[in-house]
Amino acid sequence: MRVPTQWLRFASAAALVLGGAMAAQAQEIKLWTLNFANDSANQAFQSIIKQFQDANPGVTVKVENRGVDEHKSALRVAAGSDQGPDIFFSWAGLGLGGEFVKSGLALPMDKYYAEYKWDDRFLPVALTFSKQYPGGQFGVPYTFHGEAIYYNKALFQKAGITSEPKTYDELVAAAEKLAKAGIPAFTFGGTVNWHVMRLMDEILETECGAEKHDALMTMKASWAEEPCATKAFDELHRWTSKYFLKPFMGIDQSQSFNLFLAGRAAMMLEGDWLVGQLKGANRLADFAVFPFPTGGKRLYGFAEYNYISSKSKNPDVAARFLDYLESTPVQQAHLGDFGTISVNKDVKYTSTEPLEVAWRAIFGGYDGTFVNGDQAFPLNVTTEYWRIINQVATDSLDPKAAAGELQKFIANSK
Amino acid sequence: MNGFARAFRQPGLDRVDPILVILWVALIVVAIVWIAPFVFIVFTSLKANSTVMGSSAFAPPTSLEWRNFAGAWARGRFSTTVFNSAVITTIKVPLGLLISAMAAYALSRIRLPAGRAIFLLVLFGTMLPFQVMLAPLFTLVNSFGLINTKVGIILPYLAFGVPYQVFILHGFFGEVPKELSEAALVDGASHFTIFRRIFLPISLPVLAALLILDFVATWNEFAMALVILQDNSTWTLPLGLMSFQSQFQSDYGQLNAAIVMTVLPATIVYLIFQRYFVSGLTSGAIKE
Amino acid sequence: MSIRISAPTQGLVLLAPALLVYCVFAVYPMLDVAALSFMKWNGLSPNAQFVGLANYVQVFTQDPVFWQAVRNTVLWTVMSVIFPPAIGFALALALNQNIPGRSPLRALFYLPVIIAPIAVATIWRWMYDPFFGLFNATLTALGLQGLIKDWLGDRNVALYAMFIASVWQTVGFSLVLFLAGLQNVSQTLIEASRIDGAGRFEVFRYVTLPALRPSITIVLILSIINSLKAFDIVYGMTGGGPAQSTQMLALWAFTQAMQLGDFGHGAAISVVLLLITISIVIPYLRWSRTHRETNP
Questions:
Q1: What is the rounded CA–CA span in Å between residue A63 and residue A135?
Q2: Are the beta carbons of A258 and B250 separated by less than 8 Å?
Q3: Could you tell me what percent of chain A has a pLDDT over 70?
Q4: Quick check: C31 and C270 in contact, CB under 8 A?
Q5: Domain extent at residue C128
Q6: Contact call for residues B88 and B81 (beta carbons, < 8 A)
Q7: Which residue of B has its CA nearest to A62?
């Protein structure tokens, strides 16, 4: 049966238009991220996505928020199936995020870095994490965080502490003064494991110095043979037995924050995101912050990245969204929502809020960072690291034996 | 209450036995302790967070914070999780019972090659803790592309429901007089017809009991759902509660409201269909 | 038109759906676990590597948590066989007496059984909250601050604290089974022995207890099997903590495979748990078969 050619041409043109329209309508990208404790981040995403969708008709961005552990589990599962996200949030450290990159689940983004000129846009210290894997540049910086000690001004005053500790010994002395005034120095949430770990990481940096600390975390040095490692566990034990608000092992870190707000302890080792939480609780005026006095030149901090999945069907759209998210106007408009500073280096800071000013000074005062332990180690070593820290913290492992235990596990796992 | 008139007396005797009275009082005390968790949860669910942190734990709420429920409902995505739980349970429970009944009939009333071996294989499944197979189950369902789908969770649920139900029904069907089915067979009825027309109707009480037990077990299932339903839009009620707990542990009022809402459906079903629970349990026991 | 389908074929048709789904989704994963225990696989890459007994060696000699998990699992099982059945038995005896309100009381004790274990975990975790939970608040109100504990954060207490929650949930189960058994004890026998002058305790020892033997056996076996499955409660209350001190075999296997990405290691632990279960179950199956044959 002969079909007139005009019909054919019309039909194929219609099919193309329809198909193209449907393809355009079918452009959905899924973004998997955390349910941030700082709710302003969650809300910022909603409004940014809306603006992006308005500016890019035919594209929908779907966000899925999860708690920290669930997000990690979901990523592992998605890695083995076709049901994964197009963009996923991950911590940029070699250990935690590295697992996915090393098994080929993150897309190398060199062409997008060239297209959008990202190398010129981001803070160098945040950018370094994209280059730590062979095979290209992976991921786009999302936030850069530092962690420091927040303290309750009234409680410090009550204990007679007149100046912020600048050395480790001064910090210990301050804790002593607080103890004498009947105030626990720190509050921590033990159930989440990574909270108490932060103190351990800081003590390690203090006792071992930058190079040895790195060697220990990359497992090139032996924990059993470095005396500073044992000293660090000893110090950790001193803090947990004398200066922690008890009980701490059975509560999580959001409960410890409630206790901190209620003035049950003087200090909390937290990240810059806490400023947003304090703002949400209307308590900015009662607290101040100073960096943990490790005596070194590195700030305790880490970067969070957004990676494009190598299984994504719309990587170009995903890249476009990430570019939008990290663009100067968007970052400027949402300053303070994701973290105290933006990874975008062209953003201008005008806030005079004392805590935010303090953080900018902190960030400016260091030229390097060391990451949280659980981002440096592979997963199974992290689990053991947490177990040993918790055992030392609850007096069930002699601190002198702790480093040896960890090394035994590391040796077995290689 | 009629019970009181003749209560506290030993069988066959007329005087009130003081030991029984003491026993009863002790029981009441234990019962109060037993129900205390529920009371505590309900009270806390109706308090605002600041009240929870400020006032005594067992003080009844002075003003009822119904907002906790609305807040928990939204934050815990209850509309999604309740819907998912309902769909999965409504499909799985009758379907599972049907295939189990068919299998039980076949195994108990028809001579099958390797019938005894198959029955033992199925019986073995009543003892298997599926918790040891979570990871392989995940891999298997994933290989079918069924992760995050209702089909993907229903199939394993069916698989693990088969052993116990087949076991119970096998025992029950075994008791049906041979003459009943023989007469029908002589009349030219197929086994399908006998099953449908004779065995299903007479086993209605047992089926009802198994249905109720399975409904609750499926509704409450957590571990397998944790592994197979990763996308939070597919979550069931137990998953929703666990996620709520891990993220909003310190939002005490809402946390307890979430607990109340999670527990309520099964509680209502139980209060209405109490006797089926009991008969379901005991029919399995007595058949030994 | 009628075609004679043979009886066995009809039987196979009736049997097929259940058998198929059971074999694919229950039997196959069990075999897969055994196979996986000899491999190294991270769950992500398409290839698994055969490593022989390496996983087992690792589990038995290099896993610092494994033996703790074994101890906890065994302890939990032993406690589950003793306490809930004992309490259930006592309650059943009490509820079997001529006292008012038996039905509502029985309903009340059974209620926790039908609550999702994960909800039980959440309820009790909240009650154990060190600062605002019911227990510590009660102790403080009674002036007993010295007894305050970090119920789920103190490794000496945590496992037992979780177990109490489990008792709350499972007592109703043995209660109902024992009550049914008690109600099947012949009343005429009891009254006859009463008339013969037997006191309360003699009746119990010589009439009731022997008649209850089948019920006791069932409750014990079901308690063992159910306790080996303990997963939801541990996951929801402590996640295995503090410092992996409340870890149980099923949860540790899950953690290794699904959270740490070491499927082979997790499979080896699963096989150990499976073997423990089988070593209890097979003797029981044999015993119950012979028992059933002699006592129809």
A1: 28
A2: yes
A3: 93
A4: no
A5: 39-294
A6: no
A7: B233
> Do the chains contact at A64 and B148, CB–CB below 8 Å?
no
Q: At C78, which CATH number?
A: 1.10.3720.10
For the record, the structure tokens of A156 come out as 């410090």
Model pLDDT for residues A13-62, shown as the tens digit of each residue: 555 554 444 444 468 999 999 888 777 888 899 999 999 999 999 999 99
Which residue, chain included where needed, has tokens 């989440």?
A: A192
- Strands annotated E in A256-321: 267-271, 287-290, 298-308
* A135 and A251 together in one domain: no
Q: Does C260 touch chain A (CB under 8 A)?
A: yes
Same domain, B166 and B183: yes
Rg (alpha carbons) of chain C, rounded to whole number: 24
Are the CB atoms for B60 and B224 separated by under 8 Å?
no
Verdict on whether the full-model pTM lies above 0.80: yes
Q: What is the DSSP letter of B60?
A: P
Number of domains in chain C: 1
For residues A264 and A258, what is the distance between their CA atoms, to the nearest angstrom?
A: 9
Domain that holds residue A82: 26-145+302-354
Beta bridge partners of B171: none
Q: Are B111 and C4 in contact (CB under 8 A)?
A: no
ipTM value of the model? 0.87
In tens, the pLDDT along A78-118 reads 776 677 899 999 988 877 777 778 877 899 999 999 999 99
CB atoms within 10 A of CB B123: 17
Q: Residue C26: is its pLDDT beyond 50?
A: yes
Cross-chain Cβ contact C239/A73 below 8 Å: no
What is the distance between the alpha carbons of residues B167 and B125, in angstroms, rounded to a whole number? 10
Residues B50 and B114 in one domain: no
Shared domain for A376 and A232, answered yes or no, is yes
Considering A162-171, B166-175, C189-198, the range whose residues carry the highest mean pLDDT is A162-171
* pLDDT tens-digit series, residues A237-281: 999 999 999 999 999 888 899 999 999 999 999 999 899 889 888
Give the C-alpha separation, A360 to A210, whole Å.
23
Q: Tell me which residue range forms the domain holding B106.
A: 77-285
- Residue of chain B whose Cα is closest to the Cα of C17: B99
Residues of C in contact with A247 (CB under 8 A): 130, 149-150, 153-154
CATH number where A211 lies = 3.40.190.10
Q: What is the DSSP letter of A187?
A: -
Residues A286 and A307 in one domain: no
Strands A267-271 and A368-370 turn out to be: unpaired
Residue C115 is nearest to which of B24, B53, B263, comparing CB atoms? B263
Chain A residue nearest residue C252, CA to CA? A383
* Crossing angle of the two packed helices A194-217 and A227-238, in degrees rounded to 10: 170
- Listed as own residue / partner, the contacts of A350-353 with beta carbons closer than 8 Å and 24 or more positions apart are A353/A275, A353/A284
Amino acid, single-letter form, for residue C248: M
Per-residue pLDDT reduced to its tens digit, B94-117: 999 999 999 999 999 888 888 889
- Which candidate, C224, C227, C270, C277, places its Cα nearest to that of C251? C270
Q: How many helices (H) and strands (E) does chain B have?
A: 16, 0
DSSP one-letter string for C223-257: HHHHHHT--HHHHHHTTT-STTTT--HHHHHHIII
Residue in B13, C189, A102 with CA at minimum distance from that of residue A90: A102
Using an 8 Å Cβ cutoff, are B209 and B275 in contact? no
Q: Which chain B positions have a beta carbon within 8 Å of C253's beta carbon?
A: 131-132, 134-135
Chains that touch A (3 or more CB pairs under 8 A): B, C
Tell me the HSE value of C107 on the side-chain side, using a 13 A CA sphere.
Answer: 14
Report the distance separating Cα B40 and Cα C137, nearest Å. Answer: 12
Does the structure show a pLDDT above 80 at A67?
Answer: no
Best residue of B239, B241, B247, B252 to probe chain A, by most A CBs closer than 10 Å: B247
